[in-house]
Amino acid sequence: MLSAAQLTRLVGDVVPEGRIGGVEVLSAQLTRLRLVDGSGLLVHQAAGPAAVARACAALTLLRGEIDLPLPTLRDHDADGARIGVPFVVFDDLAGELLGRVVPRISGEPGYALGRQLGTALHRVHRLASPGYGPLDAALVDSDARRYRLARADAALDAARSVHALSERESAAIRRWLAAHDEPAGRQAALVCAAVDPDTVLVRRRDAGWSLVALLDWSAAQGWSPAWEHVRLLEAFADGAYFDLRVGYGSAYDEATRRSYEQVREHALQPYRLIATLEALAEARGADALARLRARLATVVHDMVLPTPPGTTLSA
């Protein structure tokens, strides 16, 4: 959370004549500043220089798109020289974070909002990425299979290094992927990969809710829409978002005839596997580790991965 002194310095840089009239902390990373002249800023505290670079690169790619729920980039600092931490600043937008209002968005309003989200992200995914990988990377891969296998290999190595997986378990998954993994798509799409209840800004309109902006582009990368689906469905796994998930999948599947881009479990499985492995490598505590190993066991079973004798992938 940014201090009052940091916010004052930031406004002095971004709006030299501006004065802060009010501060609203929306989340640990997001702060809304209201200036005395009636204007406002949204300040996103970034995790590091790479996060700022990715956000700026994604919003640059998207700047020609109209009618998409995107924030307007006002300023940024990747190295933290100005206020001590990296940040991205947007012009303020009226609305509330979805996570704060979800009890009021269920049933038909939740479904309708999910459809807006699915339609918006399908349009984002129509933009081709320069290649597979993070948008801040100097070089990205151009081969879908090679990138997905490399991503899986890195996740397996990381999970094994922290003893979240055994050598035998890791080897079994690696062998199956090498023999069976074959991505259907050949063109990397721009994916946001950071859509969750604390990064989606919404606004009440009449009897429903409208999608105002997707605020976090710090994880933007070139990959398959299936990666977006997996990350989004995980972020909105709580039962309160059931209607939103249904609306999202319905609208997205209607928007494309490519089955490998649709929100279909068979298309998501390899990406769900990688996401689970990456989460395993970062798990802290026995409960989190057990939960993720149980999830991995389910994903592996669904992919019909033969487990070597004496090996169990379970909690």
Can you characterise this structure?
It is built from 10 helices and 11 strands. The strands form 3 sheets. It has a 5-stranded antiparallel sheet with strand order 1-2-3-5-4, with helices on both faces. A 3-stranded antiparallel sheet has the order 6-9-10. Helix 4 (about 110-125) crosses helix 8 (about 240-255), helix 5 (about 145-160) runs antiparallel to helix 6 (about 165-180) and helix 5 (about 145-160) packs parallel to helix 9 (about 265-280). The longest helix is centred in the middle third of the chain and has 18 residues, at about 110-125. Strand 1 and strand 2 form a beta hairpin. Mean pLDDT is about 90; it is low at about 305-315. It is globular and about 60 Å long. It has 2 domains: about 5-90, Phosphorylase Kinase, domain 1; about 100-300, Aminoglycoside 3'-phosphotransferase, Chain: A, domain 2, CATH 3.90.1200.10. By secondary structure, it is an alpha+beta fold. The protein has helices at about 5-15, 50-60, 100, 110-125, 145-160, 165-180, 225-235, 240-255, 265-280, 285-300; strands at about 20-25, 30-35, 40-45, 75, 85-90, 95, 135, 190, 200-205, 210-215, 220-225.
Side-by-side strand order of the widest sheet: 1-2-3-5-4
**SSE order, one letter for each helix or strand:** HEEEHEEEHHEHHEEEEHHHH
The CATH topology of the largest domain is what?
A: Aminoglycoside 3'-phosphotransferase, Chain: A, domain 2
Mean pLDDT: 90
DSSP helical segment count: 10
* Fourth CATH level, the homologous superfamily of the largest domain: Aminoglycoside phosphotransferase (APH), C-terminal lobe
Q: Count the strands?
A: 11
Query: Can you give the helix content as a percent range?
Result: 40-55%
Helix/strand-derived category reads alpha+beta
What are the low-pLDDT stretches, counting only 5+ consecutive residues below 50? 305-315
Biggest β-sheet strands, sense, barrel: 5 strands, antiparallel
Strand content: 15-25%
- Number of discrete domains: 2
Q: Measured on Cα atoms, how large is the radius of gyration?
A: 21 Å
Distance between the termini: 35 Å
**CATH A-level architecture of the largest domain:** Alpha-Beta Complex
CATH class of the largest domain: Alpha Beta
- Silhouette: globular
